[in-house]
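Pasting two entries for a bug report.
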Amino acid sequence: MFVEHEASVGELTSQERRDAIQSERRILGNVVQCDGARATISAYADDIDGAVTGLWTVGKMISINLGATRTVGLVYAIGKSDRAWSNEGQNPIEVSIELIGEVRDAAEPGAKPIFDRGITTYPHIGAVAHRIRSHDLQAVYDLAGRHSITIGALSQDEAIAANIAIDDTLARHFAIVGTTGVGKSTAVSLLLRKSIVARPDLRILILDPHNEFAASLPEYCVRVDSKTLDLPFWMFKLEEFAEVLFRGRETVPEEIDALRDLIPIAKNLYRTPNSGAFLRRGGDGLTADTPVPYRIADLIKQIDERMGMLESKNDRPTLKSLKTRIESAASDPRYRFMFNSRLIEDTIHETIGNIFRVPHHGRPVTCFEMAGMPSEVVNSVCSVLARLAFDLALWSEGKLQLLLLCEEAHRYMPADPRLGFAPTRHALSRIAKEGRKYGCYLGVVTQRPGELDPTILSQCSTFFAMRLANEQDQAIIRSAIADSSASTLAFLSSMGQREAIAFGEGVATTMRLKFEKLAAELIPGAARHEEDTLKSGEVDLVAIVDRLRNVPTHTQQGMPFAEVVDSSRQAGDPDYRKPQPSRIQPDEDFDMRYGLKPATFGLRPRSG
């Protein structure tokens, strides 16, 4: 039995559990105060010879020996009562710790120690405190056989792996928060890579506002942007379609009512061309929200016919305004992904299969790149994708496991309801509240948790909190963490790169960790930054203007403003001549206003 020379209470721990060469200074102090959550330890900052040991530091874990059990605590404050340092003799200090739980030895010889968050026996006055053993530290973060992945190492002991329970982390949703530049995107990329390996059946859809994740997941990812996205307008619900038509502004109730009446008629005309404007009532009746194809030309035709009716005389200004909105949206180059198809076909199977990777063909991740998209497009598309993700998981009866990862989530589900698109908020909130029952999971990444919808944030059961300097953001995290680990958040403003405090269902107990280091080429945004640095310093103004107008650099049919410009000549030069726009005659079989065939879609062919 080993007894500290200056201590009156021995450590009731068999010598065989220690390393033979371990220093006798392992006993560091004694408990002098304790309550239900915290304790104070009396110790010395230096040894008998006057050398400062540095054994007590903030953030370290210690163990208080109680015989059969050992209480585990986290050092969150150190102080000297008289606030003075003496070079004569030892300097007594007070160490404040937060009680986390207790470790007890297993009944079977040689078995691993067992950690319990609850405390059955509290430390008594004079109980011996010492540095925690590695075996006990491993027991604190042991996941008790749950399916786990390794994402890094513990900050207080880099020899011990930091593991998370991947199934619980995904199924109960997770959030990664931290100020800009601390490594959130790198942590996300690491988590996704580990999740794909651990869960091969998982499909992942990333809402990527900075176009940076596709390059970091090249072997797993399919890239989708506004040019390659094929999301037909008829898959939008009425309120999502209205967001596009009204460009994010407040809607006009009369126009919405007209759309609610006329869109089902247009859908019925597509299904049964000879039925006229009569809707079938019953179980298979069509509504404005039913994802059934219809033609914009038929919708315009119904508006024209209603304007021609005598009883609609008072509604003509409303209908005319609605017609103008629809025509404007259909010809807007920003909405090509909705109205680009020349032939309206029922492509819902191909659309959903491509976006949600069914089948995935070895690439289960879809990156939806939103950089450069106007806000009303982002709002509508995010709403459609979130709604489809939940419905797919629901009707697949758990066979399809989906993770919807929302990067910069505060942009499209803000705390202020006046700033966000209500259908997007509703669709994401539905996943957060009910998604885990059907296999639809939510991952939230944000640098401003204080600006995020608290309803959605509260549904995330696992948090990875990286460095946060804002007091409001820290308060949000402080309200989510357990009271027994609240002092851990004192490190939020001073943590280093790739460091995080993990707490919630996915970890055994609150854990300060450092994420694994990714290869330089796999860091999100690194490839694009390297490509930009290699480019020449010359600025191509013509290409910039074409991208500003959201049109390709070559001449487009029906877009006279996309003409070729001689950048070497400027207006005012003597030999400056503005080139004549090349007028491409539309084919007789097509109505270029809506990209529809008159013979196919019921429009009267134009006479010569």
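Entry 2 (this is the one that rendered wrong in the viewer):
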Amino acid sequence: MHARKIGAAAATAVALLAARDLLQKRHALLRNFPVVGHARYLLETIGPELRQYIVTSNDEERPFSRDQRTWIYSSAKEENSYFGFGTDVDVEHVQGHAYLKQRTFAGALPDAHDPQAPLPSAKVLGGPRGRAKAFRPASVVNISAMSFGSLSGAAITALNKGAALAGTMHNTGEGGLSPYHRNGGDLVLQLGTAYFGCRNEDGSFSLDRLKDVVAGAPVKAIEIKLSQGAKPGLGGMLPGAKVTPEIAAIRGIPVGKDCASPSRHSAFGDVDSMLDFVELLATETGVPVGIKSAVGEMGFWQELATQMARGDRGVDFVTVDGGEGGTGAAPLIFTDSVSLPFRMGFSRVYGTFAELGLTDDLTFIGSGKLGLPENAAVAFALGADMVNVAREAMLSIGCIQAQKCHTDKCPTGIATQNPWLARGVDPASKSTRAAVYLRALRKELIKVSGALGVAHPALITPDDIEIMNGDYEARTLGGVYGYKDGWGRLGPHLADRITALLTSAPDGTGTPAL
């Protein structure tokens, strides 16, 4: 009797659903195929998960393949990150794959088994321009710009604590310096076009507020964000669903409304005024000041290099973001088709400064899927001095590449402001995983540098890597990107200094004196 009632109720529900489908006009599929048409929408909803875990091969998925995610996850958890039986890459036929050429003999090399994997920058940030608070970054791997708002407070806390444990720097992102950034990690303060946390009531830049922020936190450098690879020339977008009262107070914006940053800065409008702005910030704060930008037209970079060649003004570092970089939210055309990919964009920027002999006078930082050893090694060979990692750091603290960052429904609680979802991130344990991943990447870079016979990844040259074109042609990295003799290499004094730092330990501990 009970089963009969359940069956009748189910039949009634199906009949009502069928009637609704037949009468509605929004979906043609449901009007033509009532009830059963819903199966299509169900499969569409869970399609990404089916492809991620069942359909795609180990090296096929994007943005990060299963093999790449597995390496990050296992490294962060201190599990076995080795792979067995051979490569999944179709090395016989694949185009564009980079191959590093090992050397049979080498000179003195650093300890590749040090658990801390110390790997300082080969350059002193701000040193060439004599900044009052110039310093040598202790790590060539650092956490890239991800704002509180785009990420949850728990995620920012985990990343900042992880940065402190690993001895890396943590970029605040353009959303301002939040309480979650104050957990021990050294900071790079990013200034976006909206000047969050450092602005007047009308949205204009406030130098006094900037000085207060820098004085009250472990800010080691300031990065002026001109654009980012995933949405260049667009300005940032924080969906209203993520604008909580806390975020609104930090940024100075209305609660619950979409927060769209301007596409251009109001504090300067050309290279000349931008350099004046850079020198103002450096003079007033003492810290190194640089810029972050995706690469499009080259006129900007050519004028910047030309003006810096005069010697009186200049940026201390340039962060080049590739078009393959990530973002919390952006139109598809911007993520897919605006700005150059990292290797092409970086090589053009580096070449612009190399033509004028300026490459030893500033630090080059790369970002855009460089948290993987192969990509990072190629970046160093092209001339990068440091790399920033973002999505890879998110993966290390539990991101599953659900690609729901723009919906405020991140299932792991990382890219959301939903309190219930964010509670899934335990900062104490996740910070350890972030630190272990950061050290693991440094360790891989030390190992691969040693295989190539050099003590530091910045000493890898464009001739040490070949780019394959199927199974019939290979060209050096320098040949592919039009590098001239000497490009991509440190000056002799820088090369000798970093080699000495990594291969000598005056205190007997195996840790280089910075």
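Dev reply: Rendering is fixed now. As a check, the viewer should reflect this: The first helix runs from residue 2 to 23.
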